[in-house]
Structures are given as structure tokens and as C-alpha cells.
Amino acid sequence: MNTHSHKHSSEHSNCCGHMNWWRLSQLKANAADRKPFALPGTQKRYAPDMTVNVHHVKLDVVVDPTAKTLVGTCTTTIEPIAAPITRVAYESTDLEISSVTSGTDGSKLAFEITDGGFVVDLGKTLQKGEKALLVVAYRTLSPKLGIYFTGPNSSYSKKPYQVWTQSQDDDAHHWFPVVEADHPNHRMTSEVIATVPAGFTALSNGRLVDEQVNLAESPTDANSDARPETKTFHWLHDQAHVTYLMALVVGEFVKLEEKYGDLPVQAYVHPSLLDRATEYFKGTAKLVELYSKLYRTEYPWKSKYAQVFVQDFIFGGMENTTMTVMTDRILADYSVRDEARLSEVRLNAHELNHHWNGDLVTCRDWSHAWLNEGGATYGEVEAVESIWGVKERDYYAHGLAKTYFAEDRRYRRPIVCNTFREPIDLFDRHLYQKGGLVRHMIRYILGDEGYYASIARYYADNAFRPVETIDLIRAIEVTTGKNLRPFFDQWVFGAGFPEYKVSYRWDEKQKLATVKVSQNQKVENETGLFSMPIELSFDFADGTSKLVVVKVDEKEHSFSFALASKPKMFRFDPSNWVLKTLELDVPKGMLAYQLANDASVMGRVYAARALATGSGDDVVGALSEAAGNDFFWGVSVEAVNLLGGMKTAAAKKALKSLARPTAKDIKVTDARVRRAVVNALGNFEGKDIGKILADILSDGREQSQFVLADAAAALGRSKWKGALPVLKETAKVDSWNEIIRIGALNGLAELGNANGNNQGVKVAAKLAAAGQPWHSRPAAIACLGKLASGDKGEDALKALHKLAESEEGSQFTLRMSLVNALGQAKKAESLPILERLEKSSFDGRVKRLIAETATSIREASKTGEKTAEKAGAGSKKSLKGEKANLDEKALAERVAKLAGELSGLSRDLKKLRKQGRK
């Protein structure tokens, strides 16, 4: 399962959150303020016991997308695992159970409704080795999870009717009754027979056995309604899979198809999005071939690989076996085709890769879900490397690391962790991004041959079986002879990452290079010192180089190397295989040379970062040169970001030159770098910056919608008084997925309530309302949250509360946005609103976010109260002091007055004496 959204191509959002192209108001924190991962009262969770094997599940259902109903039967074939049984338990929520009968003789079976479902009395003792078929007649009752009915409403009349299911992590029992446990530790085959209205297509796992048109029936008398024409689709999935990978989608679709050998590779999309989907779909069969060859394991599902694009999907994609469900928002149009391609490829790659990592082998328990998600995330890295090369791969991995580091500042946990309230809590950046980079490091340690041979063994030994982390460890040991348990203890069962500080010095007299390495991470809880082999590279003027590998496992190390000549360049972990932060203490001249000459992307990036810790025109010059260099766009982006962070006059001048050179032609040709430039300019305030950004928005030279969106956001950060009318106009501009309007809303949020920006509240409140462009509504809500957090934020907060209380506020994406916005505002009066939202929320992501947000607001309120108390105490002291000062002043005035009077009296006496003498 995956969600990706990116303001920059180097940014990553955690998967399993909702997709967002808007600026999401996260509950940010520094590492010093890191919170525990487990919320208060959280208990350890384990896979449930099972008493029966489920061999097969057959659904025979009628789905009405307009009436939002599903009704039919669920036939489950069961067999006792060990002991004989007389009863069997089902999980079911939001389902009305009409009857339970024996699929063998048709006899009715008694059942009892329980809190989590119902229990069936088999009417006999079922022995081990004996099977039973149970037929449950049921219908959905306004399901909150599991199955979603979308379509037109009073606000959005043009939306098509669609129905789609989403069963991960344990929501299948919201759309069909599940025997015993909606959990990944058990597999079965499945069958779906779905009858839908004419014009609709029903899609499910496996192969299409039959497709039948059911002709309309005429009414038998004047008072009867005619039965409309319908269509029945019969799908059979005869390869065992876990419950959460079963799916059903209904809608109006057209089909695209490629082939990988004899395997059909398909895409289903609403006709209105056919052109976009055609571009997206290109190369999907090539990705199937890539993973089949890399893993030495052919695509394991013989029927098909299909993708179906749906509206309002609550994830980026979901890897249901043989049929991935994708958000249609990922489909780029011609106006953003090149810039959006990387996002399309990585989502495509992630969900396809799951058909090995997560579907062929599935985590036995959610605590080991990194085997699914980390593996699929590394599949993104492998796809990027295959399509665009090593430079792009390394920078992509760098983006994964930055995303994980951001979450690590909020909380830190081991990747394998069974302390959680709901399984969805685990689907975070530790699971995905860090999990993927752990795979990257294993590849580094084993080498390509050892790594991919081990992965092939892992699949061969565990195909169609549940797995735990130990299964991967064993596959590596059997294949390579290497015991990686210490590595897994650090990186998977432990927490954190190494924070290296590395210094390099050269002794010309002794021809000796000395490298000192320290690990500066705080050693506590599950975070210790890391033991890793690290490559060190010394590059010389004659083009030769020396590569050595050292083991770094202590707090401090000092390594010395006798070399024939002085190196021109020193590199630590030159290919950046190790997940880490790196602080370099290397002579400035060597860093400048490395920034201009290193063959690796991350070598240049680390050199640029080290240079930027200094100052001076030479540093700005080196970074400016890197920004305009065509070595690799990602290095240029990093150099621009560093210039933006320096906030010096020289850096500002360099960025202005990049944004608006004296020549008429745009100096920076890559739109991704231009995005970085406008964002960096937003770090400087003032009229000159504001006018440059406003010109970019209005003069028509800039064609990239992404650059325009980021220029609008940066314009708000410039705090220029003239920004408001420009942003108001920009908020009227239509674009792909509303990204320019979103940029304008982000700019209004950054501008704040200064300069009469109550108008910004009005713009955001209007665009947050029902009926407004759907894709920009979350950004409008986020804008209100930012404006509500400042002075004069009452109107923004009222608008948020009003929307939270409305029916619109119940939709998943909007609710997540609202809770984030209330967290950004941090107002105590929002707590009752959050309590009401919590009671009507069912998705685990929403519930966790509400809990975190409420805690954050309470903490902020306590801090505010303490500050007020201190201020009050200080005020009392101040008043006492003022009274004392007033008393002293009055006394001084009286003394001065008395002194004056005495002085006058003294003068009078002197006069009288003089007169007496005369």
C-alpha cells in the first residue's frame, strides 16, 4: 500500500496516509522534543489464534452504485486445524446477517450476534480433516470502512458513480463476513460473482470466468416495476492469498492492455481519463519484467496484473493480488507530463512490486509489515535506477532518508514493533522509507549477486506463506553464509541511525592522511552505537583513486593511511549506501573541488553542505556555480536550498540572478531547479523579492505549473505588502489537480494576518467550502489553520469549526485536513470539536491524528497558562516596583522642594544681614 505526494521530487510522504499535493500542517518537533511512538494506554498486539483453516471464500453479490448497497451471500469453506469444533466465529461490522445455511445440505444453522460479529452453531461436530461450507446471506448497512460508494451529490454533480473496496489492514469484514480473523496470517482462494447495472463493470482478483448480460424483465402487472438490464461478472482467484488482498471495484471503465509474455498487463480507467491513463500505463509490462529478472522469480500470479483508477481513494494505491487499486489523482495531463513522471513511476512500481513483497510473501503479523512495505519501497528505488540510472537512484534514496529523518524528529521506534493501538499506526516512514533503505544497506553489504540470490531464496522458501523477519535473515544466511543478525538487531529491532562527524587531515611531511570518525547520536533506549563497514575514498590529481573499507563500531575512531601523494578529494561512504547524517570537517579547497568534480551525486551534496557551514563570497560562488551546473539536477537543487538557508546579501543576490537573469532567456532550464530557486527566494523578506516572485506569476514566461505554485507560496513568505492582491488573483487560476491555486493558498497562509490579510481568511474560507474545486479544498483548510494560529485568527478558527461540524467534514481527506489545521491553530476551544470528531471517526489514521492533535493543544495550553502565570507574577512585582519607584520619586520631589525653600530662606537671611551692616 502506498501514498506519495511531493512538492519537490526529492520529498516523500509517508505511505498509507492520504495523498496530498497541498502543504500538510504536520505536528512538527525537534529531536529534543521527540514523543513516544506508542500513545498512552497502548498494549502489545499479536496475531490471533486460529481454530480453522479457511480454504475458499465465494461472494455472490448484487451491487447498486446509485443506491449504495451490496447484498448477497458469502460461502466459506472451512476445516478444523487441530481439534474438532462445533461452533465457528465470524467478524462482521456494518453488515446485516439474514441467515446462515449449510452449503452441503441447505439446512439452516443457528447463529448468535456478538460485539465483533456473530457465532455459528454448526449443528454437529466437525472433525479435523472434514470440511464444511457455510453460506451467509447478508447486506451492507452504511459501512464506515472496507467498502466505499462514491458519486455525484449536490456539490459535485459531475462525479461518476463508483464502488471500491479497501480491506487493508483489517477492514474486509466491513464488506463481507470473515471467519475468525481478518488478519494476514492465513491464506485462502477466492471467487467473486458480482451483478451490477448495465453500463457498469465489476472487477475483482484473478481471472474472468464468465461475463453475462441479464436482459431486462417486463413488469407482470401495472403495479410492478420492470427489472432493469444488468450484467454479471464471475471472477476466480485460485492462488491462495490473505484476506486483506481481496477486492471488488464497480464503475464505468475502459481497458488498456500490454503483455509480458503471455501475462495480460491491464489498466481500467473512467473514459474521461483515458488519455492520461494511456501515458501513465506505458512501460508497466517492462516493470513486470524488471522485477521478474531482478528477483529471479517470475511474476507469481498467473491470471493478470491489472490496475484500476478510482476517485476519492483514501490511499495512493493498494496492492490487491492481480488488481491494484490506484487513486486517479496520480494521472498527469499533458501540461505536467514530464515533471509528474517520476511520481507516476514510483507509485506504479511500488504497487506492482508488492506482488512479490507483501502478496507472494506476506507478513505473518503487522509488526513485521516492513517486509511488505520496505520491500515495495525499495522496489521504487530499483525502478528509478533501471529507468534513469544511478544518479537518480542515489538522489531518490536521499529523498527517502530525508522523509524518514523528519518523522524520527517526531518519534523514534524500532521498525519491528508490536506496541500499537491499530495496525495502521505502524504504516509510517519507519516502515516504508527506513525499511526500504535497510534493504539498500543489505544490498551494499552482500553485493548485488549475494543480495538478489538471497531475495530469490527468500521467495522460493516462503512463497504463498506468511513470513517474519527471521525468514529473510535465514534466507541470507543459507545463500551467502553471512549472519546478519547483528545488523538486523541494530537497524530493524533497534531504533535510530548513526550521526557521523568525520574529519580529514593531511600530513605532507609524513605523507599521511588521518580520518577521524565519531558517532554523535544519543545512546539511549533502543538506539546504540552502529557497527557498519564504511568505504573511504582518496582521489588523486592523476585520476587514480584508492578505496579502503573500515569498520566503524565505536564512539570514536582514528584511521591513518600512508599515501604516495596528497589527495585532491576525500570521500566518506562515497556511494552513500549507509543511512546516516554526516558532518564533514574537510579543508575548504578540497570541498570546493569535490563539489565541482565528484562523480557521485551525494558526494557533491555532502561537500556543498559542508561548504555552506562557512561563509564568504567564495562559498556563495561555489554554490552558485553548482546551482547552474548541468551535472545533475538534484545537486543543483541542494545548492540552491543551501543558498536560501544562508540568508546573506551575497546569497540573496545569487538567487535573484538565478531567478531573473539580465538576459531574457531563463537561466535555469530544469523546472525542478527553478522550483528550488523560488522556494529559496521565499526565505528572504522584502519588496525586491516580492516583486520578482510576483513577476514570475504574472509575466507569462514561466510555463511550469509547479514553479508557479511554489512561487506563490514563496511570495507569501516574502511578507511583501503587495503580495495579497497577487495571491488573490493567483487563487483564481485553474491547473492540473489545482496545484497553482494550492500554491496561492499556501502563500496566503505564509503571509499571515498582517497587511489586512483578513481577506486571506475570506479567500481560504470560500475555497474550503462545499462545491469548490475538490483538490484545493484541503489546502484551503490548511491555510485557515495557519491563519487561525496567529493574531486576529478568530474568523479563521470559526470557519474551521463550522466545516468540522458539517456533513462535509466527515469525508476522510477533509477530516484529516481539518484535524491537521486545528492542530496548527492550537486553540483550546477546538478540543470539544476534536472530541466530537473522535466519536464519529472510524479510520485508524484519523483517530491517531486526533489523539496526537488533542495532546498537542493541551500541552500548548498548559504552556500558555504557565507563561501567563509567570507574566502575572512578573506584573505584580512590576507593580510593586512601580509603587516603590513612585514613592521614591515623590520623596525626592519633596526633598528637592524643601531644599529649594531652604535655599531661598538662606538667601533672604543673607540679604537681611547685609542690610543690617549698612
Question: Can you lay out the helices and strands and say which pair or pack?
Answer:
Blueprint: E1 52-64, E2 69-80, E3 85-91, E4 95-102, E5 111-113, E6 117-126, E7 132-140, E8 146-150, E9 162-166, E10 178-179, E11 187-197, E12 201-204, E13 207-214, E14 230-242, E15 248-251, E16 254-260, E17 263-269, H1 274-281, H2 284-294, E18 305-310, E19 317-318, E20 323-327, H3 337-353, E21 361-363, H4 370-388, H5 390-410, H6 430-462, E22 465-467, H7 469-480, H8 485-491, E23 499-507, E24 512-519, E25 532-539, E26 545-552, E27 556-562, E28 569-572, E29 581-585, H9 588-597, H10 601-612, H11 617-628, H12 633-646, H13 649-659, H14 671-681, H15 687-698, H16 705-717, H17 723-730, H18 739-751, H19 758-768, H20 777-788, H21 794-805, H22 812-825, H23 831-839, H24 844-917
Parallel strand pairs: 1-11, 17-18, 18-20, 21-22, 23-29
Antiparallel strand pairs: 1-2, 2-7, 3-6, 3-10, 4-7, 5-6, 8-9, 9-15, 11-14, 12-15, 13-14, 16-17, 19-20, 23-24, 24-27, 25-26, 25-28
Helix pairs in contact: 2-3, 3-4, 4-5, 4-6, 5-6, 6-7, 9-10, 10-12, 11-12, 11-13, 12-13, 12-14, 13-14, 14-16, 15-16, 16-18, 17-18, 18-20, 19-20, 19-21, 20-21, 20-22, 21-22, 22-24, 23-24
